[in-house]
Amino acid sequence: MAKDKSQRDDYATPLRRLLTAVLCLCLAAIFIVWRIDSPRVERFRAQVVDTVVPNMDWAMVPVTATINLVRDFQSYQRLAEQNRELRSELRQMRAWKEAALQLEQENARLLDLNNVRLDPKLTYITGVVMADSGSPFRQSVLLNVGSRDGVHDGWAAMDGIGLVGRISGTGRSTARVILLTDAASAVPATIQPSGQTALVTGDNSAAPVLSFLENPDLVRPGDRVISSGDGAVFPAGLLIGQVAKDRSGRMRVRLSADYGRLEYLRVLRHHGTQVIEGPGGLVGAAPGDPLPQPRPDTLGKDSAEGTAEAGNG
Amino acid sequence: MANTSPARIWTMRAAFPALALLIMFFHLLPLETEPQFWAPPDLLLALAMAWSLRRPDYVPALSIGLVMLLADLLFHRPPGLLALLTVLGCGFLKGRAAPHRESTFASEWLAVALVLTGIATLNRLILSLFGVEQAQLSLTVIQVVMTIAAYPLAVWASQSILGVRKLSPSEAETLVSRR
């Protein structure tokens, strides 16, 4: 009996070992292919996420809501303390509100003087956050908009105030946003009063690092950081946050977007930044551009004068 | 006897992926979108190990590999690597399970702790060899420690709630002779 059993084990084990080895080779091959040809595997990942996660969505929303409800109840226990904090914050906010109102009026006046139109190309799609990355090592969220809604890789995602991240991986009905805090995220930015350019590089902490600063002496804590549009990745001029110095003296960005409560994100449609290559491109028409149409003769002379005057005035 | 019937074995083989999907579901809930200073235990890994040490026939390598590959894809990790390391680690533990049938829980825990540490070390080492950006080391260390601490919990849950126990020698005999 014992001999019989060992013989059977001898027969079963090599086959099983072979199968396990084949499985291991497949898994290793997937990893290596991912490292070599990342976009293709990432597209596959987006498809897998796109098939799996929307199936969970019906349960995710109520469970998330319930857990948040329990958390809110816990926070009721510190109600008195919170009330005191809120009152002192409100006092500060009143002062800020006064300042903001004045600034708003001034801003409106200046915009009016300059006749500025904000970029009309920047329209957005709003998506709901369905899921987060699920692991503490990556910082990303899944939105419920995808290629079906015309979302493309590389577009910027904002909450109401500041930049949150960029789209990386779109399925049919889901899109992943890599947050600025992720270790793989780097966004070219400008620091406002000094005009220094830098990269906002995530390192899995709440405040990303400002790296590749040319002259750190010109940058002070409190300066505004906005996206620079270098590398044609993002539209320029999106607010990212404020400069802050950490304990070891490194420059970091305190993000303006409220990362604690990411529920709805705006995905900005971006169709590439227009590149001015030579000094002639700024003045004359580019070679491929259509020439301005000559004025049709059918229009009377009076109306032409009228438009010219209107243009002057 | 009921522990070794084919119906029971196939039910439990299906139960492992189902349980894994449940764990992934709770991981994916968008509760924390801020970076954290600590990492929760990797319950999937603890569960796979607890089951490999108790009933290797419930968790074939293929099942572990596919579940961990799905987790890699969903959790935005480098696909394949952690799945490969888990399959190897669980295979090692399965090999140890038979001779140590009468061993104490402490020695089992020690073996699991060593394998978990090995998996985390190899994972970081290979990722840095391939030049992949990684989160800070402290997070990995915290996760390994938390997983080791949560291992008895996973064992308790699978033994008392799901009934995944080690086979008595006579049951093992019937299982082997039917194969």
Keywords:
heterodimer, A: 313 residues, alpha+beta, 6-stranded antiparallel sheet, 5 helices, 21% strand, disordered C terminus, B: 179 residues, mainly alpha
List the helices and strands and how they pair.
The complex is a heterodimer of chains A (313) and B (179).
Chain A: H1 2-36, H2 38-76, H3 79-114, E1 124-132, E2 140-143, E3 156-158, E4 163-170, E5 175-179, E6 186-191, E7 196-201, E8 209-211, E9 224-227, E10 239-245, E11 251-255, E12 264-268, H4 279-283, H5 301-312
Antiparallel strand pairs in A: 1-2, 1-12, 2-5, 3-4, 3-12, 4-5, 6-7, 6-9, 7-8, 9-10, 10-11
Helix pairs in contact in A: 1-2
Chain B: H1 6-28, H2 43-54, H3 61-74, H4 81-97, H5 105-129, H6 137-161, H7 169-178
Helix pairs in contact in B: 1-3, 2-4, 2-6, 3-4, 4-5, 5-6
Summarize the structure.
The complex is a heterodimer of chains A (about 325) and B (about 180). Chain A is an alpha+beta fold. Chain A has helices spanning about 1-35, 40-75, 80-115, 280-285, 300-310; strands spanning about 125-130, 140-145, 155-160, 165-170, 175-180, 185-190, 195-200, 210, 225, 240-245, 250-255, 265-270.
DSSP helical segment count of chain A: 5
Largest sheet of chain A: 6 strands, antiparallel, barrel
- Secondary-structure element pattern of chain A, one letter each: HHHEEEEEEEEEEEEHH
Rounded average pLDDT of chain A:
81
Low-confidence stretches of chain A: 1-8, 302-313
Rough outline of chain B: globular
Number of helices of chain B: 7
- Give Rg of chain B in angstroms: 17 Å
Structural class of chain A: alpha+beta
Strand content of chain B: under 5%
Strand order of the largest sheet of chain A: 1-2-5-4-3-12
From the structure provided, what is the oligomeric state, counting identical versus distinct chains?
heterodimer
Order of helices and strands of chain B: HHHHHHH
Strand content of chain A: 15-25%
Radius of gyration of chain A: 28 Å
Overall pLDDT level of chain B: 86
**Unreliable sequence segments of chain B:** none
- Strand tally of chain B is 0
**Anisotropy-based shape of chain A:** globular
Q: Fraction of residues of chain B in helices?
A: over 70%
Main sheet overview of chain B: none
